[in-house]
Design brief:
By secondary structure, the chain is α/β, with parallel strands linked by helices. Helix content is 42%, strand content 14%. Helix 3 runs parallel beside helix 10, helix 4 runs parallel beside helix 5 and helix 11 packs parallel to helix 13. The model has no long low-confidence stretch (mean pLDDT 95).
Amino acid sequence: MSPNPIWGDDWEEVRGLWPLDPAAVHCNHGSFGAVPEPVYAVQETMRRRMVTNPVQWFHSDMTESVRDARAEVARFFHAEPDDVAFVSNVTSGTSTVLQCLDLGPDDEVVVSDHIYGAVSLAVERLCGRTSARRVDVTIPYDTSDDDVVLAFASRCSDRTALVIVDQVTSATARRFPVKRVTAAAHAVGAAVFVDGAHAAGMLPVNIPAIGADFWVGNLHKWPCAPAGTAALWITPAWQERIVPLVVSHADLEGFPAAFDRPGTDDLSAWIASPHALCLLGQLGWDRVRAHNEALVVWAQHAVADILGVSGDELRHDPGTSMAIVPLPPGLADTPKEARALRDHLDARQIMVAMPCFGDRGTIRLSAHVYNQPSDYERVGRGIREFMTTRP
């Protein structure tokens, strides 16, 4: 491993662990993750056991394997195994919790304008079902942590039943002070749901220390587990009220066992998830996180420089492996403009996220250990080409 003075270790020899198409540049790990070959091999082994002896698998092997995997995942988050359940993703975990809440027309649900789209829709369904009122908190992109807490606190009242807050926002790559927001919400008697979709693996998360009532995070993103794997943590006081979206044979066992057997689903992704945690642990979680953060900060400035975007417009929150680059005004400020740019990049196999927030087009860069500087230089050149060739 050769150290780089800017981002530290350059793991050229481990890039082959990810079976990614070498013709593409994969700078959007934050959306769907990427599964290393050894982890995929474990998943395939589990699938082989399932298809070669289905009765033994579904009657005994699967349940035991899921329970053991759940315990390993809980330990990773400093949580008790009986406080954690597997769900397929944060979207599923959010819907699970919200469908169990018994709110009414006198209740309010407080969310920020950085909320993830699917979570926002789940809130709309909750409010439509219960006649509760949604309260949106406006948080400018460059707001300080203190002002984030004040913004949430200012919209909370004795009517607030639930506060939903992102630990790391999807659209803006902001790291919110969730522990402090939780304390502010609890001060008025509200329950708190933390969307940890990106925080899992990206940050060293101690779930119980946050103090929230509900936390859900994706394992298929930064921990590199197979798709369809997320952890749902419920504080003990709420566990009797939270049930799976689907009723299955373990339903009477309660949380979390009721989540362990959702029919005859293929749960090999859940069972393989500790192997992903182990693989990155062998590289060293602190080193992985430090590398990813330093590389994405470098990439953010490199792409901004290629596009002529001032460094004064850039922001990066400590510990995060994603960064936003504002695009030059008029380049992708409307859905039509953004679609044209995305088509241009997709045609050149340049994979980046283009989240929507406010009225300024942006791209969101991600960094993981398989990335290298040339990936982001190609991103910048691809956008620059679009700027100079569009009609």
